[in-house]
Amino acid sequence: MATENQPRKTLPGVITTSKWLPPRMLIYGSPGIGKSTFGLSAPDPIFIPTEPGVENVDVARFPVAKTLDAFLESVRLVADGEHDHQAVVIDTLNGLMELYYQAKKDIPGDTGRDGKQRPLYDFIGFGGHSGWNGVARDIKADLLEPLERCQQRGMYVIMLAHTGTHNHKNPLGDDVVKTGPSINKWVWERIQGWLDVIGRAEYVYSTSKVTDKLAKASTDVEIVDGNRVKQRHLYFDGGLEMDAKARIGYELPPEMQLSWDEFALRLGNVDKLIEEIRGLWEFLPDDKVPGTMRWLGVANLDRLKDAPRPHLSQLRNRLLELKGSPPAQQFVTAGVDVQRDRIEVETFAQEQTAATA
30, 209, 347, 355: which is deepest, by most CB within 10 A? Predict the structure, then answer.
């Protein structure tokens, strides 16, 4: 048994340390909402476009891919070539699916009992099951593995897609129509599990009275009808109604502005997280400090680097909420009124006490 001065024993080949890497992420939303702008704001990006969109912007990019081979060659160059880019942006997955369809639809397959030759990738029969399942199988080696090499060299991997819907089987109730990227569901299932972060971009309309001060306070504000504010938001809290997530190690708030600066601030790395926590520490009530330290598993602020990174991310987000947030407002999202009241957030110490009670 390990003592205080002796490390715990483990098994050969077991990894006990972590290395933070930029996330593999996808942002989906309606055309024109600002997905490409989000990618353009990433650090030193290089675009691999499948459709027009960034031709009038000074950014490193390949020509719009006209064939699947040209697209995949660009991905391999970014993954394995010598360069200093810090982010790769696939713009968009929808265009990539069209390239896959055009490249695979005429490949001959087996000859049936009737003597007719069938396509190897059948995008017509049985709802295209054979064709799109084949694409889902191929895309791992074609795309995901090269993009993993991009991540391993320290690059953000950013995929962009337009919004669509999927019929979703709900074992606990009625089936639902779920919002997600507008690509084939079998291909999406393959990509979805591979991603670290999925964000849905959506317009949010505030019915609060607009003031000149409010309008000037944010570049994300647009006046609508003189008395409403239209903002672009990102959602990372998925469920039956939409696909969204943030994997452990990349904890993000359920909602934020569609802004790379805001995203980078909330995501951060360990050193940045600790710097932010120190700056926000005064907002944690004194009587909650001991419980929070126990939850972090450290003795004091000087040992924050020893705390689990997911806990640091969650603590930073909660401290931001404790610092203060706007009053409750009535929002209109996708034509439906939903009350998004700001609820006072309890501290980690209280949660820990409740969980162990």
Answer: 347
